[in-house]
Structure formats: structure tokens, C-alpha cells
Design a protein that fits this description.
About 0% of the residues are buried. This protein has a two-stranded antiparallel sheet with strand order 1-2. The protein is mainly alpha-helical. Helices cover about 70% and strands about 10% of the residues.
Amino acid sequence: MGIIGEITHDGQLDQEWVELILEALELGISVEEIKEFLSKKSDAVLKSSL
């Protein structure tokens, strides 16, 4: 399914993911760090599905 499939459902953002991202931002994690983390996790999911 991949990261995008996990954070969306019928084109809607999953509320739990939104809350996790907002919490990360409140803790001082930058948007760039969040993007990098999600990108790495997405790559790992893709590689494991081969």
C-alpha cells in the first residue's frame, strides 16, 4: 500500500497522521525532517514489497 495509501483514505487525510505530524512540529521537528523520514519509510516499504 505504501505511506501515501496509509495516510489517506478515499482521498482524505487520516486524522491520526495529521495529529502525529502536528505533534512532531510542536516538538521542533522541521517539515524537511518529516518529509525525509516519510520518504525513507516509503522507500523501505517499496523495497520490501519486491
